[in-house]
Please model this.
Amino acid sequence: MSLLRVSNLVIDIGVACPVDGVSFSIEAGECFALLGESGCGKSMTALGLMRLLPPGARVSQGQVEFAGTQLLALPENRMRQVRGGGIGMIFQEPATSLNPVMRIGHQIGEALALHEQLQGVAARARAVELLMQVGIPDPVRRLDEFPFQLSGGMKQRVMIAMALAGRPRLLIADEPTTALDVTIQAQVLDVLDALRRKQGMAVLLISHDLGVVARMADRVGVMYAGQLVEEAPRARFFAHPAHPYSVRLFSALPDPARRGANLATIPGNVPPAETHHVGCRFVERCPEALAQCREAAPAWRAVNADQRMRCVLERSPGIEKVGTSRGLPAGRADDAPRSFESFSGQSPSGTAAEGDHDTMVPPLLSVNDLRVHFPIRRGLLQRTVGHVRAVDGISLQLQAGRTLALVGESGCGKTTAGKAILQLVSPTSGQVHLKGQLLVGLSTSELRPLRAQMQMIFQDPFASLNPRMRVGDIITEGMRTLGLAAGREKKSAERVAELLGRVGLAAEMASRYPHEFSGGQRQRIAIARALAVNPSLLVCDEPTSALDVSVQAQILNLLAQLQREQQLAFLFITHNIAVVDYLAHEVAVMYLGRIVERGTTDEVLRNPQHPYTQALLAAVLPVHGPLVVMTRLTGEMPSAAKPPQGCHFHPRCPHADAACRTTDPAEVMISATHGACCLKLKD
Amino acid sequence: MMSLPFQVVVLWSDALFFGLVTAVVMLGMWARRQAPLRHSWARVASDKVAMVSATVLAAFLFVGVLDSLHYRARLDAAPGQAVAQKINYAVEVNSLLDVLLAPLRLHPEKTYSAPLATHLFSKEPLPGSIERGFPRLTWGGAHLGYALEHRTIDIVQRSALGAAGGLLLWLGLMSVMRLRFKRQGQAIESAQKPGAGEATMSQGGRAINALLAVADGDAARKSSRRVASHATLLTLLVLFLIMGVTMALGSGYHVLGTDKVGQDVLYLSLKSIRTGLLIGTLTTLVMLPVAVLLGILAGYLGGWVDDVIQYAYTTLNSIPGVLLIAAAVLMMQVVIDTHPDWFVTSAERADARLLALCLILGMTSWTGLARLLRGETLKLRELEFVQAARAFGVSHFAIMQRHILPNLMHIVLIALVMDFSGLVLAEAVLSYVGVGVDPATISFGTMINAARMELARDPMVWWSLAAAFTFMFILVLAANLLTDAVRDAFDPRTAA
Model:
């Protein structure tokens, strides 16, 4: 008998129906993943199971049976025992899931007192045991610390420890690693997986990340617009996705094999929860839709013995290769053990003529030994007691029409570097030249004419547009400020229409407000705003990290197309290696304010020399192929206020020795374009 | 020389009040021509609660305006004097409202009397006897003569008559408006240009007519707007009925009783409206620019500007507010008293003191809002759309004006209304301490202040406080509800 059986769960919020007839079951000890884009009802399903729905939402139909009990019929006091005791839950954002004014020990103790009736010494001993289980070093000391003393990964581990305190038989993990860096994500997933196997705990994993699902799940359920549309075991699903939506999710993943070509995208967005569906929910975005798809909702249909989907299309293995000339990643999955070397044969055409590129033309952007130090002020007189070395001497060059990716974990200073290049943050020292002109030290008015040359696209499309301004005004603001708008109302309206057209939006959208648009559309507006002043350099600060996979593909396609058409140079700041591999010509890897390795994309990603780059690449979760257990990077990035002596990476480096602790490594050139800062490369 | 039978007196507060009203009207006319703003206001106009509140507020405002048209009556030439000599005007400054309420104003009783009473509230030695009893009022119910048993019938009759009058007046207004509306509708149909038929319209009918102008917009908006205009008309009906009944009763009774010195409480309450509106609006007007400017500057610029502004408001906050205001008001009082030549009439002196109070309240009450705005600006400053604007080289001033201020407006609006009610209450507290408005100025504060003794009596005199409370409650509630609706209509995120 299944541990959890959800049948025909329907959740209403007024007229909206975010979850509409979801049925699945989870066996004891199994990891079932709900996969889907944001707005598909994944989290709502989980909250519905726990009966923790937000006000206004209610379960209107369906049954949830957990270990033989009907959860939806339980009185609230019995339900409280199930929460934490039977089913544990961890959330996406570890920073807000812990009470900042309570010691870690107390927070775990609370759960222990509730579910295990443990008090005092016994509770403390159990708490230490739990912290050990989730791999927190020195647990006895950590018990008396406050959440702010812990890093993000540590907090998430504490959250897991708290969820484990009631010895739950099912753990609901709602995007447990989305807020974490890749190296930390790998550590946390390892902990979760080990615990699950050791304790036989079932896991309901909610994620939008195919890599995380591939790493963790036994079975996968794909959710779309409030319904499950496909269900299959992991291996089967990743090898042969059946539903058109699943197939397109895979083909929308950025992939170096498709560099220069467009990524397959899913046009449009997930329909809002208020939509009244008659036919298949995916029909508006499905290129293979038949007439019958519009008329009746497709019923469940078995594709295989263990794979089923809600789609009428017959899928022979050949049909999977939709949308691109090359085969889908799925087709390669079996014979390609995941590593970057496997792609090296398919060197993209764009990187062929690299050698002479650098020497012939003077670079568009040239950064030399750029430093940004923020003073730390303390005390009554606000004396400077130290510096946060956010950017600590980086140098890079970027040619027109090329993309340089600045890669690193959060907190390594890559965003600050981008802002310092644009002079949004004034650099402490160093030079930035744009088209041969020195930017550092210019006054605001001297800088203004140069602003048209360089623009920025921000990470959060919801914060980067003023909610009180119309789209047309947002786009023309830069033109007006820089005096490019030639005064005429009509002319600037034409220009807005042209720009909106170029980023794939309709001209009449100019009179709307940003909140009426989805994340992807907002990011397009932000791009149009930047393009309005005809820049030659765009600094893109994680422009797709807040977007869903299918929308990310749309934006990446747009950026690539703009680069081809207008010879734009991109400084692409990201932590997503797959995006880098698809889009970038050159890569610079940053660690704690410094560039530790740089070179062309192939050189850095296929032949990483610096141990940090190697670890970073190893932490990337493969979507396809068998799991390769790699050595994980331990620990976390130190604070930029107190960087370690010598090589900044030595405390986490597996190869570090005494020299690394004292000597600052200089850059060692492996080839004309490929350099890394590591002492071990000398010999 | 043609001379009017009165001299128009424009008090400073009148000038400011009318300036404010004109500014609002002009802003409104300007907003009508801006499509997005018109759209937002149309959304307010289709909100039922908002329109009811607006109607009630308009009634209050109407009373305030009437009470701000001041004049001095010409004194008849003393017998024996030549007509050509200098014309003398009365020392007393009256307003149009005083004229309209003359029956209430000019018929004081000796002391307390309950609403609609025919006798005084307390026993006194009856004239011409040694007994103590409840003397008859000189005006309240005087028309009844000795037929006191007819009082209830009289009240009912008068109420019915008044209600009928109110209803008639309302029906008359309705038919006039319907006619106008029809004509306007035709004009719009022929010209396809909203507002074309309005040129001929009188100022007063314009606002209501605009509500009824459902010529454009989709069906849903149309119907909701119709519901809202129906609500407006219903509110008007209720107001007219209340007015009719009050007028009918007021011609023979003290509808809300009389106070300690026998003044009609209804008259006092109506007069208090102007004081309340003035203190609420003028103070806000003084306080708002300071708070918004300093709050945004401190939050956006940071550094030493932030330090200076923070020190300023921390210092202001560290002094107990009432003491600071008391000190300032007393200083003003000394200035006023030492320069009697500045003021021709006592009304001007009271007015100067009222203005001074507004100014002082304004200068001490900006700190809270400024701190709130500073915090919000600190947050907004780091948002990416501000960064994007900086990447375009947009000047600091333009960023503050285009990106920061509009995103603070919801806080400003809420704070405005909260402060409005708070200030009306603060006036009461200050009057209690004795540093509020001039004792000659009628205000809710002085009424509430007086109520402190009245509540201590046995039996209790409740009607002063009840009247002040009811009027203030309705005023503040209407302002709150309207602001809520305006805020929602202007927030693009909540306006669906």
In short: The CA atoms of residues 17 and 351 of chain A lie 49 Å apart. Chain A touches chain B through 33 residues (CB under 8 Å).
